[in-house]
Specification:
Blueprint lengths: L10 H17 L3 E5 L4 H14 L4 E7 L6 H13 L2 E6 L1 H10 L7 H23 L1 E4 L4 H5 L21 H10 L4 H4 L13 H5 L3 H12 L4 H8 L3 H13 L1 H4 L19
Parallel strand pairs: 1-2, 1-4, 2-3
């Protein structure tokens, strides 16, 4: 029996909704804006926002390429309707193409274009936030943060991350508990950055396995202990440990050389 397994606890819902409510109140802003992809993470975050502050202050944004259509858009639209929140649609294709042409990026350079898409989506969200005095809510989970599976200043560039301390497996369990439709929960996870792209193909491991390894790392277990308790080969454990360490720069604020009395990110505590 696998002994390493992150678990959802019902009290986590209250902790997160209280956090969302207090952050919004303390900010002095009027509302929240969240990118909705039709996937489980953004669907759960939208639900938690509504649970925390009600539907009226929450705006969802669909930012795809081309006309708003397809199953992911229909799921985002349907779930937004269920929650009673507005869903705005934006076609980011012209913006992405402008960057591609101006910067002379080849169309087959999928990673660079994918990062541009993620950052353009954040430009859209922050333009709404700045204009309407809203906070931008991130939808990244703990698995993605640990594995550095996000675009710096893209989906990682947000005001706060309500589910940033929940592993993907916990996200799915909480989503099911809160009534997110099964078809959304059971989708193949994808960032939607290019056709056929999936999270698990890029990560090289299923989330269920990744989360067990990450929990072992979080608990300071040795690689051998993780491999044994998570029932996974040692080579995979080492690969994930290397990925977590290599991605540290994406989880930290920009580095600053210390020349003053107190330095942000080092010894200036806020």
């Amino acid at each position: 029996m696998v002994s390493l397994q992150p678990r959802f606890r019902e009290e986590q819902i209250g902790i997160i909704t209280s956090f969302i409510r207090h952050v919004l109140e303390d900010s002095g802003y009027r509302g929240l804006v969240v990118g909705m992809s039709g996937g489980v993470d953004s669907s759960l975050v939208a639900k938690l926002c509504v649970e925390a502050v009600g539907a009226a202050p929450v705006v969802g944004v669909w930012s795809g390429e081309g006309a708003a259509k397809g199953p992911d858009y229909r799921d985002a639209r349907g779930w937004a309707g269920t929650l009673g929140i507005e869903l705005r649609r934006f076609d980011i294709a012209p913006l992405v193409e402008t960057f591609r042409r101006s910067l002379k990026i080849r169309k087959d350079n999928l990673t660079t274009l994918g990062n541009i898409k993620a950052r353009v989506r954040m430009i859209v969200l922050y333009s709404i936030a700045n204009t309407e005095k809203r906070l931008v809510i991130g939808t990244g989970n703990k698995s993605e943060l640990a594995a550095a599976y996000f675009s710096k200043f893209g989906d990682g560039g947000v005001d706060f991350l309500p589910i940033g301390d929940l592993y993907k497996t916990q996200v799915r369990e909480m989503a099911a508990h809160l009534g997110v439709p099964k078809r959304i929960i059971n989708k193949t996870p994808t960032a939607g950055l290019w056709p056929g792209q999936t999270d698990e193909d890029e990560l090289g491991v299923r989330y269920e396995v990744l989360d067990r390894i990450l929990l072992g790392i979080e608990l300071h277990l040795t690689p051998e202990e993780i491999a044994d308790q998570a029932e996974v080969d040692l080579k995979t454990v080492h690969r994930i440990e290397t990925r977590v360490a290599a991605g540290a720069h994406k989880r930290k604020p920009p580095l600053i050389p210390k020349v003053g009395i107190r330095t942000f990110g080092l010894d200036w505590r806020e």
